Amino acid sequence: MKNDSDKSLWQRAIDGDHPAFGVIFERHVKRIYEHCFRRVASWSMAEDLTSVVFLEAWRKRENVHFVNDSALPWLLGVATNICRNAVRSLRSYKATLSRLPEADKANDALESDLLLDRLHSESEAKVVLEQLSRLSDDDRVLIELAVFEGLGYEEISTALGIPIGTVRSRLSRARGRLKERTTLNLQFNEEAS
Amino acid sequence: MTPHMSESEIERRKRHLLAEMTLIENRHKVPKKRYLYSSAVAAAILAICLVAALLQANSGNADIDNPELILVSSVKAVDSTTDVVLYAKETHFEGNDSSSPRVVSEAWSDRKTPGVGRVKTLDSDGKSVVDSSAVIEDGKTVRQDISYDTSTVHVSTDVGVEVKPLLPDQATKLVGEELIDNVESLHISGLNRDAPIEAWVNKVTRLPIRVASMTKGGLVVLDYQWFQRTEQTLATINVAVPENFIHSDEPLPSNKQPEIPGSDVASVVVPGSELNEATATIPNVAASPTTVVSASPPVVVIPSTTTTVASTAPPPAPVPYDHTSTGKGLSGRVCQSHFYDADSVYVVACVGIWRPYFRSENQTYSFTGVGDVSVYRVEGAKKWKTSKYLVKPSDISLTLANGSRYDTSCYCQPTLDYGSIDSAYVFEPPGEPHTASAQFHFEIYKSDDPNSIGTFTVETANPVIFSG
């Protein structure tokens, strides 16, 4: 099952084989979490938002779009929308999230290095977020998908639900504004540069 | 810059996702297009399918293991059952044992005619105190309140009597199947306005037959009975005025009017005391599955001194924050403090670590503080995150043994359920070890009010050693 494509796993999950969706979750959870974290700069909130993304993806499972049999671009699009209204999204899923099994706090506390990493990452993320906040939200999302997620035009098009031509023109303008308004030196995916 | 999600966290969330998928599937089922064929055979098959589906729905087994679906079916059953007279009885169990159940009110409601009903309150001897009934006359609701204290009858218009069965607004657990007064029922645990509540619904009809909740005064049990709407059952709503009672044109003062059973359960919750120290539990009113309900359930009542504290309570005292070396660095423990308002007890809990280290790039010491701060509402042994209050880290104070004091700003993010304190920097020459104590300051807000209502400080119980 681990080697199956997202498309085939997705269909199996819809047909009742729920663990197949668990494989998709394992496959993409880190990318989705990283994307959420970059959007909200809070690891604890990003964790809950990641859960919400997959729950919402399952709710909208009939609307999925695959790019080369991968659900990742579409999932990133779902994540972008979820994070855009992070507080509202978390409230919508409050009852569901309240059923999360208790974490083992004792073990968590021992994972001191992980926690330190997280705290440092948050402060670094906030520095980047502060710079990116000088751009419009549309520009930010485009740049995050192209730079941090390394998506190409077609994948961004699927994630955001806009035509490829629009992705090209918007991204070009967004890069111009990025250079103009921030000091960030970001590496774009070659396909999207 | 991105932190990792731990493998244990991924596994925890995957299990949660898989558990929730069926629920989502049932809630958001995508309707399939159905194609009807004109042949008689297809129609017959469809009819058979419909009958089978109805039988399945009525059998009560389709959602038997899902408390939320049971709750949904119960709400639907209440909404759609109108050709009945609903009887409700509110019983209080006071004191530290179950020996003193007292029926405080009874009510009847004609579900087909909104506003038509009766409610009466009873004293400790079971005698009526006020008996109010409402009927429709000439298209108007006419209500009479019989006060046995003053031997008066008060007539007013437009204010009816209506019983709305209390149900959880969130079901969290299916406890099991139990017999309540020889009726097979499904026992679910849930929350009503954030307060724990137990409910028993008829296994077949899904109509609620019992609800139990803790309140300030102790355990409150509501019993419901659903009678066919007949002349005889409707007659229970009409009350004859006793002889010699004096008619008054003044309506009975609202504070003397009887309350519908369950009205206080929905608005009163019982605070617990300390986190992890349960002082109140919702007892299982049905003694055990498949046994007839005992009329005297066991009950634990919270000492009255801990029930309510005004919202103007002084800010909580600082709480020691443990600071323990694990060899790999320094790891913190869960720390907590609590505060009160008129409704409940809240715990501010933080989990995290703090560790000083040397930053060579700017020749300063730096340390990282508390990782996660949340506000929980506590009811007895249960606690859950609440968005009623926000906790916002404000700053970190650090006092070195040499007297230097740093009131550092921190990367404090706006919080809803979350809060974290990040790094702070200490500008001291490297080389010599420095000993410091630290305090993390938080402000507590009501989520709908930007004005802070108090502050909360976590301070280190043990000194922190900075060394280059």
Q: What does this 3D model show about the protein?
A:
The complex is a heterodimer of chains A (193) and B (468). Chain A is an all-alpha fold. Chain A is 72% helix and 0% strand. Chain A has 11 helices and no strands. Chain A has helices at 6-14, 18-40, 43-59, 72-84, 86-92, 94-97, 105-110, 112-132, 137-148, 153-160, 164-181. Chain A is globular, with a radius of gyration of 17 Å. The N and C termini of chain A lie far apart (35 Å). The model of chain A is unreliable at 105-113 (pLDDT under 50). By secondary structure, chain B is mainly β. Chain B is built from 4 helices and 27 strands. In chain B, the strands form 5 sheets. A 12-stranded mixed beta sheet of chain B has the order 7-8-9-10-11-1-2-3-4-5-6-12, covered by helices on one side. In chain B, strands 13, 22, 23, 25, 26 and 27 form a 6-stranded mixed beta sheet that branches. Chain B has a 4-stranded antiparallel beta sheet with strand order 16-17-20-21, with no helix packed on it. Residues 30-39, 49-62, 266-334 and 414-422 of chain B have low confidence and may be disordered. Chains A and B meet through α2, α3, α5, α6 and α7 of A and α1 and β15 of B.
Q: How is the topology of this model organized?
A:
The complex is a heterodimer of chains A (193) and B (468).
Chain A: H1 6-14, H2 18-40, H3 43-59, H4 72-84, H5 86-92, H6 94-97, H7 105-110, H8 112-132, H9 137-148, H10 153-160, H11 164-181
Helix pairs in contact in A: 1-2, 2-3, 2-4, 3-4, 4-5, 4-10, 9-11, 10-11
Chain B: H1 7-27, H2 40-59, H3 67-80, E1 84-93, E2 101-110, E3 117-122, E4 128-137, E5 140-147, E6 152-157, E7 170-180, E8 183-192, E9 195-202, E10 208-215, E11 218-228, H4 231-235, E12 246-248, E13 319-321, E14 323-325, E15 330-332, E16 335-340, E17 345-351, E18 355-359, E19 364-368, E20 372-379, E21 382-385, E22 389-400, E23 405-409, E24 423-426, E25 434-446, E26 449-460, E27 464-466
Parallel strand pairs in B: 6-12, 13-26
Antiparallel strand pairs in B: 1-2, 1-11, 2-3, 3-4, 4-5, 5-6, 7-8, 8-9, 9-10, 10-11, 14-15, 16-17, 17-20, 18-19, 19-24, 20-21, 22-23, 22-25, 25-26, 25-27
